[in-house]
Structures are given as structure tokens and as C-alpha cells.
Amino acid sequence: MIDELDESPVSLSALSHDADRRATRVTRGVAQRVARARHAPGVIETLARWAIPLTLAAAASLAVVLLPRNESHSDAFAAFVIPGRPAAGWIISGESPDVAEVVAMVGDTR
Amino acid sequence: MTTPCLNRVASRRIDGAPRLADSRSDAALVNAARSGDDAAFEALVARHARAALAVARAVVSDVDSAEDVCQDALFHIWKRLGECREPEKFARWMAIAVRRHALNAIRGDRDMIELSTDFVSGLRPPDEDAETAEARAQLDAALDQLSSEQRQAVLLFDLEGWPHAEIAASLGTTEAMSRQHLMLGRRRLRELLSSRSSNDR
User: Fold this and answer.
1) Closest by Cβ to A23, choosing from B49, B125, B136
2) Which pLDDT tens digit goes with each residue over B88-119?
3) pLDDT tens-digit profile of A73-100?
4) Domain count for chain B
5) Based on the domain organization, do A65 and A104 belong to the same domain?
6) Which of A23, B30, B104, B143 has the fewest CB atoms lying closer than 10 Å?
């Protein structure tokens, strides 16, 4: 072979032990990253996890912008902090929720 | 002269025959890893990590950075394992992918690299004697002076025992050019090491 005739190799044995050490570390690091990636939530899971909070937040923002300003802030807060019928009713009908009803619902859920 | 014993050992690695505990071929391991067997992929990485490191080291001259690039490249290879059309030639495909990844890394696409934090750069390992550490430092410094292609040819042929056909494929060149890179790399390495040792006297 040309390379064998023209130039003999330089001993690289001093690198061999270091290469083994690094290879072991790389193997371990890759295995850990693969395991982490396996357990990380996928796109669908992430979207599903955030879908309800994001929808509620968007609805709340929309309602605050669109609904009449004469509603009290405490009513609006009560309606949107407690997801359920009063909030939905307010979004659909535009009628302010009955605070007593909201308080009663909170009492029922606790 | 070449080191035939080393070459025989490494040729077995190229063929994917047993080197570590897992006796399955590269093709079998690739297919198992594609089916979700992470242990199979780990066995593949363990089998070829030294060669992958040599390729990364050829592109990224700093040996510690090369280790990070190598780890990152192998993780991306895991994600793209479905693109390996010839599982029996995994080593060749891996080498090409690692080289490409390393080239992207040094071109400034640093976002691709997630630096690991679990190594101690530049420290001599506890089980390495001072003489070996010195020899390794000299070799590392001399290797840094070679071209990327020469470094890859020298490391893969003389350290990992890869045949020229595989080295040529990993470099995207011909076997004749691979031999040329090896010859020039060895010559330059010898010159650098001898000039360094004469300076030390």
C-alpha cells in the first residue's frame, strides 16, 4: 500500500486510553439524553395540557375588552377565577353573573 | 509500518461484530433501536463512540469541545435513525453525520451544541501517569497542526483501524485521497513531534 511504503505511522498509543475514557463519557451522556427525551412530554401532550388554561385566559381577555364597563371588577374576577357556569353564562349572554350564585358554587365545590 | 493487529481489531468494529457485551450486528442494533430499544442504541454508541470522537476531533481541533460536539451529534443521530438507509453501514453513516454536525458547529451554529457539564476539561485522569499525559499532550498539540482531512485519516486509520474505503466515505472523497491524507498527515505529525522533542533537549 502506498501509505505503508511512503510513511510509517506515528504511535498514537498515548491517545488510546484517553479515547476510551472519553468514549465512555460520551456513551453515558448520550444514553442520559435519550432517556430524558423519552420522558419529555410530546407536542400533543403539551398542547393538551395548556389548551384549557389558554382558552380560559383568551375568553377572559375578550370579555374584559368587549363587555360593558359598568360591571364591577369584583364580579368579573369572581366569574373568571371560577371556571364554570357563571363564567360561561357571562361570556355567552353578556349578563353579569350573580355573585351569590358564584359564592354558592364555590361552597359546593369545597 | 502499519499496525495490522490494531487494524484487524478495528475492522471488526466497522463490520459491527462483537466488541462489547452486545453481540448483535450493527444492522440488528439499528433496527432494534428504531423500534424503541434504547439499550440497543446505547450499545451502538458504545461500539462506535471512539470513531465518532475521532471524526469530531478531526473537525473541532480542541479535544474537549470535540467531545461535546460528538455527544450532541450522536444524540441527533438517534433522532434521525430512521434515515439510515443501510443499517449494516451504520458506522459510515454515523461518521458522515458526525463530521457534518461538527462542521456546522464550527461554522458558528453554536445553538446546536448543548454543552455537557459532567467533564473536567484539561485535567489528567487519575489513572494516567505523567509520562503518558505528556505524550498525549504532545500528540494533541501536533494533531492540531494537521488539516482536518489529515487528522481524520490519521486518527481513523492509525488509532481506530478503519479501512480507507470507510475513511474515504466519511470524508466524501476517494480512497486514493484518503491514502494521500494519511501519508501527508503522518509525515507532518512526525516532523512536528521530532522538532518539539529536539526543542525540549
Assistant:
1) B49
2) 999 999 999 999 999 999 887 554 444 443 44
3) 555 555 555 556 666 666 666 666 677 7
4) 1
5) yes
6) B104
Residue A41 C-alpha, separation from nearest chain B C-alpha, in angstroms: 15
A48 part of contact set with chain B, CB < 8 Å: no
Query: Which of B46, B119, B139 has the CB atom closest to A27's CB atom?
Result: B46
Residue B121 forms part of a structural domain: no
Co-location of A29 and A73 in the same domain: no
CB-CB neighbors (< 8 A) of A19 in chain B: 50, 53-54, 159
Range of the domain at B28: 4-116+128-200
Quote the DSSP letter at residue A68: -
Chain A hits for B50, Cβ within 8 Å: 19-20, 23
Nearest residue of chain B to residue A4 (CA atoms): B1
pLDDT, residue B8, reads: 37
pLDDT of residue B196: 74
Interchain contact, B158 vs A10, CB within 8 Å: yes
Question: Biggest alpha carbon distance in chain B?
Answer: 58
